[in-house]
Amino acid sequence: MAGLAERQTRFLADLIAIRSYTGQEGPAVERTLAELRAVGCDEVWRDSAGNALGRVGHGPRLLLYDAHLDTNEVADESEWPHPPLQPTVENGVMFGLGASDCKGGVAAIVYAAALLKALKLEGEFSVVVMGATLEEDAEGFALRSLVERDGLRPEAVLLAEATNLSLRRGQRGRCELRVRTTGRAAHASQPHLGESALLKMLPVIQALEAMNPGLPAHPVFGPSTQVVSLIEGPHTPNSVPSWCEVAVDRRMAPGESLASVLGGVQAVVGPLGASARVPDQPVRTHTGLALDGPSFFPGWFLEDGHPLLASGLAAGQALWGRAPEVGVWRFSTDGTYSAGAAGIPTLGLGPQEEQYVHAANDQVDLEKVRQAALFYALFPLFYVS
Asked: Is the entire prediction scored with pTM above 0.90?
């Protein structure tokens, strides 16, 4: 399998060399489609949201492997030890933008498909490999489109985000709320003629912060939190502001819903004269498709004994002679849709390390990329049995 490992490394280098900021993933999608064809997938296509997809196998039990192609944007290239779009290998480690989030994962799942074909590993399963789009800015939106618009609903989802070859069984959710107060505008030289929405906001902010000790808690993730993260008003410094709005960043335990979060906030700020809403997030794919949706990304958690988790432990045990460690993500993933919204059992394993995600020393260990591909190739055999 040395030849496959070399091809996998070249593919990963090609992906890193392609700039693929969110909404600009087109060239990276095309490169992934080409590799899916080259490794012999039974079917290769681009869905309506512009995700790259390849299928291996003909069995009825459908598994989806998800890793995203978009990356965060580089703020200052001078901070990087190597140019971000110049893949560089040192001591078996590849450096470059997106290596750890999440192009190392894309290389792992694409070459899991290659291994399934090369080793003729077949059974009652089909595996769809997804080079996903939009995850950095709108996690889950592209996956939602695949399931709800294009009608491909898997039995289970595996996410190749950063885990350092351990398993991830869940994540906290996140939500953006907007809370607004209104007043009456007047010239700042005659403030008595107006009513300041900004001053009305002061007790609202205090009330929002005071909610934290009473928010729901989870035995693994701990308490939910919310932070007032932004304040806005009219851009007229010589006027009494007629409106004021704050953004609230809410991090949620699994099980919290849009209705429960919004209702709880409204119950606190309503008596103070304020209103609350969850805004729609504008999202446009690189193909031009609008996927706008609420800025609400629910959390999720896979319980002990679930067949998906048990299969991951068994596959790791067979491959490495030990069961992988099990934990949870602190950041958000496409699992916010698959598990949090759609109720599809979801599990994570990736070769990347969280410490390098969104960092100037972005990197991935190439041996771990190979090991992750082996895990993903082996996993269906344990899951369907």
From this structure: yes
